Structure formats: C-alpha cells, structure tokens
Amino acid sequence: MKKWKWLIWIAAGTLLLFYTRTDTRQDQASANETLIKTYDPKYNPDQTMIDYLIFRSMLSGEARMAVTGSSVTRGSGSSHQSKTWRGIIEKNLRQTHPALKNLIVSNHGHSGYTSVRLLEDHVKNPILLEEPDVLFIETSVINNHNKNVTLEDTFASLDELYSLYTTALPDVRILFLSPNPCTENKFGPPINQLGLTFTDYVEKTASYIQEKGWFYFDTHGAMTEQMNALNITRPSTLKDGIHPNDRGYKIWGQVLWTFMQKSI
Question: How far is the C-alpha of 69 from the C-alpha of 158, rounded, in Å?
Fold first, then answer.
C-alpha cells in the first residue's frame, strides 16, 4: 500500500511539473509576442529606423544593415573605420538594444563613384545577396559634380537605385543622405561644365528625393548647422578639403544618430 502511495505522489509531482513548465513556456511565448508587437511597424507606422532594426532582429534572430556611396561612405580621410560615420552608427546601434548586440553594418562605398556607378553589378550584387533590412544610400553627388553628370541622369540613377532595392528587397528601409560639406574641389572646378556647383547638386537632389516621398537626411545641412552652432570651422573637419577627418566624421555620426532616433 505504501508503495502505491509513493507512486501516486510521484505521478502527481510529474504532472504538476509538466503543467508548470508548459505554463512558463506559454507565458514566455506570450511575452515575446507582446515585445515583438511593440516594435512591429504594422502597429508603429512612424517608428524609428532603430526600432525597425530591433524588430527585424527579434523576428529573424539577426538584423542586417548596409551602406553604399562614394569615398566619404567608404571612409576616406579617417584614421580608422571605427572613426567613420558608419563606424559610429554601428557602435551606437550595438549599444542601443540587446537585439542589436551583434549587428554588422557592411560598407559598400566606392571611391570616385557617381550615383550612376552605384548601379554597377559589383556594387549592387553584394548588397542584394546580403538582403539588408536597412540600406543607406549616400547620393555621391560630389563625384556627379566633378564628373559632369547631368541632373537628369542623377535623378534617373536615384530612381533606379530606389526601384532596384525596393523591388528585390520588399522589406528594406532605404535612407538617402547627402555627402558632407566641403571647402575646395581638388578633382574639378567649383563650377562644372554644366554650370553647376556642388551645392546645386546637393540642393536639387534633396528636393527631388523629398518630392518623391523617400526618406532623406541632409548631411550637408545638418553638419553645417552643428558646426556653426559650435563655432567649428569647416576646414578643421576635413582631411583634404573634400574628405572628412576624424573630427568631421564624428560630427557626421552625431547628427545622423540624432536623426535616426526620430520617427520618420
């Protein structure tokens, strides 16, 4: 009789443990679903790009981000990649949320490339293979100006870039951004063969992208405003009149990070 009592107690304990573990798993699953919903763009249409990366990481176990553009995206002028605007953004993102702890921001910047050349296979194919959740496209108009790319061809290339990535990667979030402010042009005259200045390209592309309703960050304007507010001279932020030095990239990273924390 005692033996049967012990068997009954053991069975009851086993059942209690089973149901307790089941309830715990269900509670955890419910909590995870609630947390994911907090970052789901379906319920948060005006969320930040940071929150979107967190959501993608929670959904698939990892988040991916890529940047493409010219030499100022590649990081020319910096002492180390960690000192570039991309490196600063990557570090900040990793420290923002546990879901982004292992985030990698891949760099597809190419020195001397215009916005037209960003459509070349060896630039676009690696990005498509990576399938980033967020893609930053620096407009490369420093080189469009230097190499006399017409505004029509500039706009057409931006159209094609947007169409290419949003068609192939329907869940991607794209942010266009302008290059940094410069002081001199060592690769071409201040006014090119089309009668346009570098700032003409910055302003015209900004207007075009914003009229399209695409996400855009005015690096040129935000950096200029920040430097004026802090009495920082433009030459002190540049390595050679065009490419930022570590100080310039730090300012770029700071103003871009502030922008990324806003709903867009």
Answer: 12
pTM score, whole prediction: 0.87
What does the buried/exposed string (b/e) look like for 148-161 if buried means 16 or more CB atoms within 10 Å of the residue's CB?
A: ebebeebbebbeeb
Could you read off the pLDDT of 181-217 as tens digits, one per residue?
A: 999 777 778 999 999 999 999 999 999 999 999 999 9
Residue 128 in contact with residue 167, Cβ under 8 Å? Answer: no
CB 123 within 8 A of CB 162: no
Task: Kindly state the percentage of the chain with pLDDT values over 70.
Answer: 88
Average pLDDT taken over every residue of the chain = 89
Neighbours of 48 (CB within 10 A): 17
Rg (CA), the chain: 25
Is the CB of residue 144 less than 8 Å from the CB of residue 185?
Answer: no
Q: Is the pLDDT of residue 157 over 90?
A: yes
Report which of 97, 108, 103, 178 is spatially closest to residue 145, judged by C-alpha positions: 178
| More reliable by pLDDT, 130 or 23 | 130
126 pLDDT above the threshold of 70 = yes
> Is 218 within 8 Å of 176 (Cβ atoms)?
no
